Amino acid sequence: MLVVGNKHAIHLNSVLYATDFSPGSQNAGWYAQLLARYFSVRLIVSHAFTLSQSAMEVEVDHRLVSQQRKDLLYLLARKAFLLGNESLEVTTALLEGKPKDEIPKLADKEAPSLIVLGTHGGNRIERGVIGSIAEQVLRSTHWPALTVGPLVPSASDASFPSRRILYATDFTPAAAHAAAYAVSFAQACGSEIDVLNVVERDAIKHPDRLSDLEAQFYSALDPIVPHEARAFCDPRTYVEVGKAHEQILRHIRERSIDLLVLGIRKTSHLGLQMRTSGAFQLIVDATCPVLTIRS
Q1: Cα–Cα distance measured from residue 270 to residue 283, given in angstroms and rounded to the nearest whole number
Q2: Same structural domain, 101 and 185
Q3: What is the pLDDT of residues 204-253, one digit of tens each?
Q4: Looking at the structure, do residues 141 and 216 belong to the same domain, yes or no?
Q5: Domain check: are 145 and 170 in the same one?
């Protein structure tokens, strides 16, 4: 269970690791294991698939199991075996259907859940493409999702529990909803929180306007980071001017951030409208895992 002060509580029953068995998803599995062990919840290793034509022909007779299904069951069992240990309950779920439908449906069934996803390697041709499963699931689920991008260090080298969390906010309802998760993780992990608001240059009509925006930002912090939480998470606040993507990545590098928390809404510049949207770009380019919270 993740708890924020006396007012907010985020319960967690399971960590749901969705894998496509690609190299890009392997590191995400180890992060999923770390989270499940730390919060003492069940780890579910899942894969969603559609039957090939030949497999469908075999399984017309429901007494027969296709080689495709046998192979996937074997891969899931092997993955669960590698991630499991005496102190962790690991189960598997082979889901027939599209990932964007079946993974969120499983998360609903096991609610409340945290979904963990891996991404593509992001070479020059694929830059900005996070991978079909991650992309589809992030668009369709309302559960928090931790995405491990191609630049994230191996889980064996990671600082866990996270020492420093970056909560990037634009003070929308989506961002405020994400604050509860940022503070919850900070309390559970004994982490510090950096709170960052990036102001686009176009929003500043006059140079002296920045001081007004900074004042509004600091006054808006009270409802976002409760006073009772400040004793343990030591929040530090930052206002930067420029492009959100560039400033967030710079802050991650300069402040050695271990976890980025984003509140996502459909129409935001950090939304999920298309592959080049801000949230997807941050996931690909960030050197730490990214926790996205949908409003």
Answers
A1: 11
A2: no
A3: 555 555 555 555 555 555 555 656 656 556 677 787 888 888 999 999 99
A4: no
A5: no
